[in-house]
Write a structure and sequence with these properties.
transmembrane helix, membrane, transmembrane, DUF6112
Length: about 100
């Protein structure tokens, strides 16, 4: 089969867009995802507070291992907050990139 015949077999114009009313329960699913994001952000704040306390205790007790673990915990908590907060924007960005391919 040559290249010309192979291109004639491919569909030329397919348009599929997200459909927010195609399945029942989409509204409830959006609420669940929003609540999960809220829980994730609250847990990230809690992790940040605990990690900062561990960092302070490690620094004040001359325990470099504990202070290092606290620093790492702070960075992980901040990274988790970034991912939770930016998740919708990131998915929309990559969706738009994928639509341009």
């Amino acid at each position: 089969m040559d290249l010309l015949n192979a291109t004639l077999l491919l569909p030329l114009d397919i348009q599929i867009d997200p459909n927010s009313n195609g399945l029942p329960g989409i509204g409830q699913l959006k609420k669940i995802v929003g609540a999960s994001m809220t829980v994730g952000l609250v847990l990230a704040v809690l992790a940040l507070i605990i990690s900062a306390i561990v960092w302070a205790l490690g620094a004040n007790s001359s325990n470099p291992h504990l202070a290092g673990r606290g620093k790492l915990g702070v960075l992980v908590a901040l990274g988790a907050a970034i991912v939770c907060g930016a998740s919708v924007t990131l998915v929309n960005f990559f969706w738009n990139v994928g639509q341009q391919v």
